[in-house]
Amino acid sequence: MTTEYHLRAFNLLSDQLSSKGMDVGNLIIQLASFQIAVPSWALGTGGTRFGRFPMGGEPRNLEEKLADIALLAQITKRTDSISLHFPWDFTNNFGEIKQIAAQVGVKFDAVNSNTFQNYGQQHSYKMGSLCHVEASTRAQAIEHNLEVIEYGKQIGSNALTIWLADGSNFPGQVNFREALQRTSESLQKIYTALPEDWKLLVEYKPYEPNFYHTVIPDWGTSAFLSRQLGPQAKVLVDLGHHLPNTNIEQIVATLMHQNLLGGFHFNDSNYGDDDLSTGSAKPYQLFLIFCELIGGVNDGAQAWNSISWMIDASHNTKDPLEDLIQALESISQAFAKALIVDRIKLTHCQNSGDVVGAQEVLQEAFLTDIRPLIREARIQSGGEPDPLAFFRKEKIREGLIKKRGTTILATGL
Ligand SMILES: [Mn+2]
Question: To pair with 165 at 20 to 30 A between CA atoms, which of 117, 209, 305, 361?
Fold first, then answer.
């Protein structure tokens, strides 16, 4: 894409938006300041339980994961932080890692604990962790979370994300109420250790790896557990952690109404926790979610900066960095389109029972090609106009393969 092409497209869009009374300069500022964290485990090729097809050049250690994030930050200007996962990202020298991150301008987002697999710990998590019937296993899982908080403190993180695989595969296997009670008590012990300026993000998921029941299956359970814990606990919405056709935008609105929305794990799905690139299958849903977010912020339900933004996806068939570039772009598009919704007109339609009009207002924004505005915001921030084209033209993957090799299995990837 030439500079001339971009400028023609941007000027046309800018005129259109200005004629509708929008402040283009302000839109650019909002787009430019929006940053989404990338998880360390999204940097390598993901897998399914049937196999994994690594493409090479993937990060071999934490330093290389930081380098990949720094590259994404530099070309997209849409991310400036990494979310670490323990024990996968454990290091004996957090001080050094923090220093390396600072040198490449990368910050640390939420830290993630892991009590869903065995990695040499004394008690097995086969039958659960925070919900386990044995007090010693629960204590071990609590202790792990406390350790992760300590790691997070050392790198300047300010949130702990807990996703529990705890649940059961067969009817009768578990006493629902007792498992929930034990989970609640375990979470309370973790919450007590949380630094004052931290958030505890409580993630939910309806099924998998347990297929009959999970202890925290839905936003409602996350919400009441969070409320029991205290004001620092909030609900984390992972877009793929819903049954098909769930109205996720309504969940977002409801949580904001109750000041319980902690943040997002962005991805997309057709069936379940597919971990597809966000916006690849249901871009309209992503747009509607951002409409609720902006509406909630405008109405003072929750502040924009009270919400955490992170991608959570991992792919078997795509270059992980290309996939992240696409995901960051999709999120930017949904955000930008939600910003240009004519809210005065929408409110008028809602209050006058104009169903057709309300739909038209949303579609008018959604169908606007907003990409020139996103490009302009990125150019003004010093990023690449077209990050994906840049990544391919500069043969970045080829360079990484040369440097790091073809057969890599970093922890957690
Ligand atoms: Mn997630």
Answer: 305
CA of 205 to the centre of ligand 1 (A): 9
**Is 268:315 a contact under the CB 8 Å cutoff?**
no
What pLDDT digit, counting tens, does each position of 291-300 carry? 999 999 999 9
Return the SS3 of 34. coil
Using alpha carbons, select from 120, 104, 110, 63 the residue that is nearest to residue 84: 110
CB 157 within 8 A of CB 200: no
Q: Are residues 131 and 141 in contact, defined by beta-carbon separation less than 8 angstroms?
A: no
Q: How confident is the model at residue 48 (pLDDT cuts 50, 70, 90)?
A: confident
Give per-residue pLDDT as tens, 320-366.
Answer: 999 999 999 999 999 999 999 999 999 999 999 999 999 999 999 99
pTM over 0.70: yes
Q: Token digits for 314?
A: 């991992």
Question: Is 182 strand, coil or helix?
Answer: helix
Cα dihedral: 113, 328, 374, 67 (round 10): 80
DSSP 131: T
| Interval between CA 81 and ligand 1 midpoint (Å) | 16
- Residue 58 three-state SS: coil
For residue 52, the 8-state DSSP code is E
CA 371 to chain centre: 22
Mean pLDDT of the chain: 96
Residue pair 316/48 in contact (Cβ under 8 Å)? The answer is yes
For ligand 1, a single-atom ion, which residues have Cβ within 5 Å? 238, 265, 312
375 touches 5 (CB < 8 A): no
Measured in Å, residue 279 CA sits from the centre of ligand 1 at 16
**Helix or strand (DSSP H, E) at 94:** helix 94-103
CA of 239 relative to ligand 1 center, distance in Å: 8
Query: If you search the block for the tokens 């957090």, which residue do you land on?
Result: 94
Ligand 1: centre distance to CA 12 (Å): 39
Are 140 and 174 spatial neighbours (Cβ–Cβ below 8 Å)? no
Torsion angle defined by CA atoms of residues 95, 100, 103 and 107, in that order, rounded to the nearest 10 degrees: -70
- The whole-angstrom separation of Cα 99 and Cα 203 is 30
* Ramachandran sector of residue 172 (left: φ over 0; alpha: ψ -120 to 50; beta: rest): left
412, pLDDT greater than 70: no
Residue type, 2: T
> Looking at the predicted structure, is the pLDDT value of residue 410 above 70?
no
Biggest alpha carbon distance in the chain? 67
Identify the pLDDT of residue 11: 98
